[in-house]
Amino acid sequence: MVMKFNCMRCLVVGMAALGIAGGAQATFFDIEVNNNLWTAQTIARPVGSFAEVGLLNLTPGDADFVKIKLYQGETLTAITTPLGNAQFTVPDTQMTLFDGIGSPLMSNDDAGTGNGSTIQYLVPVTGDYYIGISGYDDPLFAGTSTQAGNYALTLSVVPEPGALLAMGIGLAGLVRLRRRSR
Questions:
Q1: The pTM is what?
Q2: How far apart are CA 182 and CA 24, in angstroms?
Q3: Cβ within 8 Å of residue 163, ≥6 positions away
Q4: CA torsion angle 108 94 80 75 (round to 10)
């Protein structure tokens, strides 16, 4: 009987892990009509956990924008990783998160010790949000950057802790129901 419980526990943990990781999508690529909020590249995503990596390119005079729907209580993490040289320092990016009407919410330049950027944001209101990426020398995202090179944009969204708790309670209820039926 203990063996069945241990296997059932493994099943529940495995299902929870798959549920959390189940929102992963394929890689997206830069489209060069995404130079402002109005032409931002839309990132489609399921409700719940989500992770995706974009391969983008900055050219002199370029800024990149992506649009993503976020839900209240979720945590968004966005990270740029320079890929333009072997030291991962080119291009030197800066990133700003904007709300649905284009007001800046938070910015980052040179996260940690590298030339990438990182934003982590707890979403207060459900809606569309925009992430702008440009070179460090273009703080207004006006396309005045001289930076050039490929970079990766990693996006991940984790639902509010209450949603994860509800999923866990639901799975525990299923396990208990299954144990009673034997």
A1: 0.74
A2: 35
A3: 48, 73
A4: 40
